[in-house]
Amino acid sequence: MKRISFIACGLFCSAFLFAQTKETEVRVNLRDGSSFTGKTQMGNVTLVTDYGKLEIPLQNVSSLDLGITPDKSSENKIINLIKQMSNSDENLRKSAYEELSRMSLGAIPIISDFIYSEKYIPAEYTDYTPETALNDLKAALNADETISEKDMVTIDGQYTMGGRYDFKKIDLKTEYGMLSLPKDKINHIDVLYTPTGDGSDRNFILLGSKHISSNSNGGWMKTGIMIKQGQKLNISASGEITFASLSSNKYKPDGKIVGAAATNDYDYGEGELSSGSTYPTYGNVVYKIGETGTVMKAGAKFNGSVQGSGMLYLSVYETVYNAGNTGSYSVKVSVK
Which range marks the domain in which residue 108 is found? Predict the structure, then answer.
């Protein structure tokens, strides 16, 4: 996955602004592990940086990972509490520790930045320390070590950009009623794109180094496209991937081997293998409906009715994953 971060003056000055809002289905994962699906008002995502403004069409936004916005208004108070934990008076140290460990999510980057800076001088006392207070605060707020100060927006399931997504809460209309979810409680948002049925294309890149069906860590690309049973699905793909896992042979989306390793068992024209089998072979573009759906062959060209309802996932078929694979497939998807 490609990451592009915009940095200025050591701070992220980016902001996500929504315009032309419309009702959009999203799945929201909270930091406490709970998850809700419903509809909210969203629009195209506008990323504003010191280098210009980028407007991202909503249908291309796959997901949003929400980081921590530093609580600058409490910075001086937090630093003074950290310094108080060097005091020889145990009661003062304990009081500072208890107050730090009860603070809000925005205190985490402030504490972390200070205790890992040159300004911080660790005290000789080990009973109440800023490091312990920081760990306890993270545990209380379900903030793991991977959490970032940046909000990250993922486009078309592959490009990730960092900045600030400027909102305070999401009002989510669910089957159980309206929910108001504060930003600091939200960990991740999936934007669930529902096709209009007009056959509009969406484009994706499947990376040989990542999007392999046997890769248990992100091998299947979540397209964000929600499909209903009976809809017509069209998938077309082009490109070339070199499989380090398969003697560094080069493959096409239809499973064709390129070059000297190729055999006469393959149809070298457009389309599927000459055998007509619907079972995927090495190098095939494959898809499934829903996270636990049946793996289906798409190849270089696929037109057919969808069996089942849920999110569309894409990958490249191989039973062994090797991060040394190179190359990619360009995949175009439309639903009618």
Answer: 72-140
